[in-house]
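On clarity, I found the account of how folds are encoded harder to follow than it need be. Since the whole study asks how a given chain folds, the encoding of that fold should be made plain. The format is easy to grasp once an entry is in front of the reader. For illustration, here is how one protein appears when written out as sequence plus structure tokens.
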Amino acid sequence: MKKLADIGLIGLAVMGENLVLNMESHGYTVAVYNRTVAKVDKFVDGRGAGKKFIGAHSIEELCATLERPRKVMMLVKAGDPVDHFIDLVLPHLEPGDIIIDGGNSHFPDTIRRTKYVENKGMLYIGTGVSGGEEGALKGPSIMPGGSPDAWPHVKEIFQSIAAKVESGEACCDWVGEGGAGHFVKMVHNGIEYGDMQIITEAYQLMKELLGMSNDDMHEVFKKWNTGFLDSYLIEITRDILGYKDENGEETVDFILDTAGQKGTGKWTGISALDLGIPLTLIGESVFARCLSAQKDLRVKASKVISGPQAEFKGDKQQFIDDLESALLGAKIISYAQGYNLMMEAASEHGWNLNYGGIALMWRGGCIIRSVFLGDIKKAFDNNPELPNLLLDPFFKEKVEQAQAGWRRVCATAVENGIPVPAMTSALTYFDGFRSERLPANLLQAQRDYFGAHTYERVDKPRGEFFHTNWTGRGGDTASSTYNA
């Protein structure tokens, strides 16, 4: 074993443990440290036995075992623990050494931490790591950003342990300065929220409206996973619906219908509101989880509030085909909105994001990996300045083909009182996006009426603002124009 390690890692929880096993399997010697020191010895003597690991019982010892420039990666809980460990590590580093945060940190924190560490003479990377336990061990999607000078020193390690696409390219590349890496990971997680929600809505319609068994639905998802919807989330949904425990019971039916969340979907929605981007599907997906968490209140409401009795009278197979179209249409909208958000953030923060490259990074290893992403990469390779995915000829054709079945699904769900918030909000966005005229002229008239907020006119150049004294009592004074 080498006397010095190629990289050090703090945090031997599920992701950290599997990631260092991945690194070691690719030939790297890894120093490991955990706040609960007993965990270090347990790992080195257990899953790490006989492998190229150096167990450290202190931060000082960890840093002393690293080759220069030292590379210290943290996989700890987002928030204060990250700042805590940065301050513990910094005194043991030298100028040019690198601190890496591989957790789900909020991108403004990464912007702040990058400046803080660089001011101390060191370099900082905030990187998204997606793929869960299996991805960490076998090859995750890795989205690094932060100090550009740090990238050459970690590029070989990161790209060797990352997932690979069919052509052999790694699902990892430099994203951009400051918080760019964690921002892209946040948007990835927001899209993940949306994908999961539209899948559960399809499941609910098949279960509650069509009366299908889990085995029947297993076969439907199995078929979908061979077509354009082929993806990790469709694949695991297939497996979940086909899973039976040791007693032959279908486990999914015993899981309480309250969804948890760790905040990245919420952050994505808040960023969209801050930047003025209509991220409707992902927003509804977050709110759907919030509503699911109000289980006791929903149970009470179900006993006193009535709605239509679900009853399907149509062609069952046609409706299942329509569901496939609805999933496809909504999924395209989810990515279109997510990419729109990244474009606006790039403009706001001065990031030079490679949108085709981001699709490539998401092709393998991560939770939203799918065949679909190859077509997104092609769209941005064909037109790097593409302003919205719906304007790409391929996706325009796909969403137009999907809309008839998608509309039938949403209409049927509404008529039968089955909630499909993500599918319907995505369809509403699609209709709004393709509308030359929206009723915002009336809205602006209302704002001008009660607050003298002014408006632009269709018969005058853009940028000229007007005010009407609607009541005859308001005078000519107008409110200043601003966006909020």
About this structure: The CA atoms of residues 79 and 105 lie 7 Å apart. The beta strands are 7-10, 30-33, 53-55, 71-74, 98-101, 123-130, 141-146, 176-177. The chain has a mean pLDDT of 94.
